[in-house]
Design brief:
By secondary structure, the protein is mainly α. It has helices at about 1-15, 35-45, 50-65, 85-100, 105-120, 125-140, 145-160, 165-180, 185-200, 205-220, 225-240, 245-260, 265-280, 285-300, 305-320, 325-340, 345-355.
């Protein structure tokens, strides 16, 4: 009885209210550079000095920033550069690499190294780091800290005229409020992000802003508006040739169809997203996990819990691998719902893991 009451309350918020969103905001398609390669080069960088250190630093930058759509300006080290300035560029490049490859603990480490150096040297890099910091905290389930970080990013970007990063700050504040959930605030912030983005013109943030608007309005029960935003997000991602974005927006459209009550279309769209990720040369684990979650949630709403269980188990394994604690937590709750009709004992075990 208690579980049924808990479940009925949670249903009011929808299974999707707890999804950890993939915000690969202007992030790169995953390159062939491995994590081990970057870890090794960074280790060598700390132990090298003189011109060799600068040459190694430039190599790290080139590898880490390759394909990073957000860092659209070149980062160069020259031999006359102060050490702190060179370190900033290397740490920033490493941070973007870990961010783009969904290694959030490592990303936070390099934000910590880069941010003190960027504060009085490079406003653009500092604004980017502030936004990335907010998102990494969010991905680790630290919503209170993420909200404050998003506020700090917003204030810095307003004061220093950083419109591209300001749109990101508004977007991240929308996501944090969406997750609490404070939907009216989330809608307010995402509309601010859309307005700023329109002033900038089509850019690599556009598709993500529209995609999150799709998700927020889906949650709010405004399915038609959500589907409109979702289709615009899909078109924007295809325009810039960003395959990962296309997959993400397919998942968000799956949610919009689900909220419309069209579970069959929602399931089919989510499966399209899964297939697209699996066909990538190096599948993005975070993106694959989210796509699998949408498959599972549509199955749950179609009362096909037995089919949802293995999908959720696979998603949990992937989320553990990238350290998405928040997603692991709530996937256990969904697993409890999937088990409940046929295996109450397993449902209770999953719910205990969630708690």
């Amino acid at each position: 009885i208690l579980y049924s009451k808990i479940n009925s309350v949670m249903k009011k918020f929808s299974l999707f209210s707890f999804l950890v969103l993939l915000i690969s905001l202007s992030s790169s398609a995953i390159t062939g550079t491995s994590l081990q390669t970057i870890d090794s080069l960074l280790s060598d960088y700390y132990q090298t000095s003189g011109h060799n250190k600068y040459a190694l630093g430039q190599r790290i930058i080139d590898l880490c920033i390759d394909g990073d759509k957000l860092t659209d300006h070149s980062l160069h080290i020259n031999n006359n550069q102060p050490t702190d300035s060179a370190d900033l560029l290397v740490y920033f490049a490493a941070e973007r690499f870990y961010y783009n490859h969904t290694y959030f603990a490592e990303c936070l480490e390099y934000i910590g190294k880069a941010m003190p150096l960027s504060e009085n040297h490079d406003e653009n890099i500092h604004a980017t780091l502030l936004c990335d910091y907010c998102y990494c905290l969010y991905k680790q389930g630290k919503l209170t800290e993420a909200a404050q970080a998003g506020q700090n990013a917003m204030e810095f970007c307003l004061h220093h005229n950083q419109p591209l990063q300001l749109a990101r700050a508004y977007l991240y504040l929308a996501i944090v409020n969406y997750s609490i959930p404070q939907i009216d605030q989330a809608k307010l912030f995402v509309e601010k992000a859309i307005a700023i983005d329109k002033e900038i013109g089509m850019n690599n943030n556009t598709h993500n802003i529209l995609g999150i608007a799709c998700e927020i309005y889906s949650f709010a029960g405004e399915a038609e508006r959500a589907i409109d935003y979702g289709n615009k997000a899909l078109e924007a991602a295809r325009t810039i040739g960003y395959d990962e974005g296309v997959v993400n927006h397919l998942s968000q459209l799956s949610y919009a169809y689900n909220r419309q009550g069209d579970y069959q279309r929602g399931l089919a769209t989510a499966r399209q997203a899964v297939e697209a990720v699996e066909q990538m040369e190096i599948p993005d684990r975070n993106l694959l996990a989210i796509s699998l979650e949408y498959v599972a949630y549509n199955l749950l709403d179609m009362k096909r819990g037995d089919e949802a269980v293995p999908v959720l188990l696979r998603a949990i394994d992937l989320e553990r691998a990238v350290g998405n604690v928040r997603s692991v937590c709530y996937d256990y709750k969904a697993q409890a719902e999937a088990y409940e009709p046929s295996n109450p004992r397993q449902a209770v075990a999953a719910l205990r893991k969630y708690i």
